[in-house]
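Action item from last meeting closed. Structure (155 res):
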């Protein structure tokens, strides 16, 4: 896919990112394009941008934001003090799925992990996203753990 650029998100990308998340029928995150919610998204964007360990990326094609993902770098005592990169919130614009954009975004995240000398890259995927599970397995990820969550707030 010539012309696809994976880059760090900037504030001007926020409306396009919100629209991508709001179009997600499977996530159940309560994302919305309601202008009243913009301040919540902006505060989150600013916190991610200020973090030394988190990066929000966009995939841009012909000047349009067509995908996004976030990475989080973590160093742990396990694995002899090794580092890992977690990939989160992977989304491709609904009209652009199946064109290799997601694979390019994941490849960019893996390259970041290698550059940071991480021992592994991990991600979680909603149990209902069976197409995404096949996608991740095709890219070399293996289901290895059972995840648990405790919802503390609505949304």
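Sequence:
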């Amino acid at each position: 896919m010539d012309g696809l650029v994976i880059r760090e998100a900037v504030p001007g990308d926020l409306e396009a990112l919100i629209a991508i998340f709001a179009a997600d029928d499977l996530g159940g995150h309560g994302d919305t394009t309601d202008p009243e919610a913009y301040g919540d998204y902006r505060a989150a964007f600013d916190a991610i941008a200020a973090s030394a360990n988190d990066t929000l990326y966009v995939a841009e094609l012909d000047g349009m934001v067509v995908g996004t993902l976030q990475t989080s770098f973590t160093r742990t005592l396990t694995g002899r003090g090794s580092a890992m990169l977690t990939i989160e919130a992977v989304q491709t614009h609904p009209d652009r799925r199946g064109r290799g954009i997601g694979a390019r975004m994941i490849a960019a995240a893996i390259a970041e992990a290698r550059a940071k000398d991480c021992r592994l890259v991990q991600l979680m995927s909603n149990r209902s996203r069976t197409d995404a599970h096949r996608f991740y397995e095709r890219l070399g990820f293996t289901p290895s753990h059972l995840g648990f969550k405790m919802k503390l707030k609505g949304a």
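Note appended to the action item: The longest strand covers residues 64-75.
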